[in-house]
Amino acid sequence: PQGSEEAKAFISAFLKRSMPKMKDEAIQDILTRKAVVLEHYSKKKAKQKRKKPKGFTAKQRRELRLFEIEPEQQRYTLFLPLHELWKQYIRDLCHGLKPDAQPHMIQGKLLKADLHGAIVTVTKSRCPSYVGITGIILQEFKHVFKIITEEDKLKVVPKLHNVFSLEIDGFISYIYGSKFQFRASERSAKKFKLKGTIDL
């Protein structure tokens, strides 16, 4: 059996472990009372950082050449079926492009539509060498269009300071590239405002 001194030392040590934030004087003061309320300190759980799904960085995409079109695939005729699919997509989007359709309604839908597969022509440009380029849009980026021409040449045409026209079922729409500098995914949620004359 433990003696009184050993019991006292055990209780003192036990209380010190149970109440690590209290000083010895405060613990001795508690011992003079009839009841001792032990405190409980829970360990703080380390917050787990949410792991974001890792995609390829821009550098990795360039190294893997994900957006490059191989030279043997740069043929206009290869992408004509894509253009036919795009025309059907626009007809469905605009409910058939009927003659009595309101032009501004069609224009609004075209502004948000996916243009991959559309045949476009550069009608105005600050750089004269771009004027007249016609072809199928193969890729759309935030600042440029990649267009394949009938001569099987891949052209990279900037949107800035260029006006593009596209025609489908007799309806001609003009796109001001300077006001069109968005990714295709961003355009679908963008609210375009009707404006008057826009300078290049």
Automatic annotation (TrEMBL):
Query: Keyword annotations for this protein?
Result: Nucleus, Phosphoprotein, tRNA processing
GO MF terms here are: ribonuclease P RNA binding
| Gene Ontology CC entries for this record | nucleolus; ribonuclease MRP complex; ribonuclease P complex
Listed GO biological process terms: rRNA processing; tRNA 5'-leader removal
Q: Which SMART domains match?
A: POP4 (SM00538)
Give one Pfam family, short name only: RNase_P-MRP_p29
**Localization annotation:** Nucleus, Nucleolus
- InterPro entries tied to this protein: RNase_P/MRP_Rpp29-subunit, RNase_P/MRP_Rpp29_sf, Rof/RNase_P-like, Rpp29/RNP1
| Functional summary from the UniProt entry | Component of ribonuclease P, a ribonucleoprotein complex that generates mature tRNA molecules by cleaving their 5'-ends.
Q: Which family does it belong to?
A: Belongs to the eukaryotic/archaeal RNase P protein component 1 family.
Task: Describe, as the record does, how this protein assembles with itself and its partners.
Answer: Component of nuclear RNase P and RNase MRP ribonucleoproteins. RNase P consists of a catalytic RNA moiety and 10 different protein chains; POP1, POP4, POP5, POP7, RPP14, RPP21, RPP25, RPP30, RPP38 and RPP40. Within the RNase P complex, POP1, POP7 and RPP25 form the 'finger' subcomplex, POP5, RPP14, RPP40 and homodimeric RPP30 form the 'palm' subcomplex, and RPP21, POP4 and RPP38 form the 'wrist' subcomplex. All subunits of the RNase P complex interact with the catalytic RNA. Several subunits of RNase P are also part of the RNase MRP complex.
Q: What is this protein called?
A: Ribonuclease P protein subunit p29
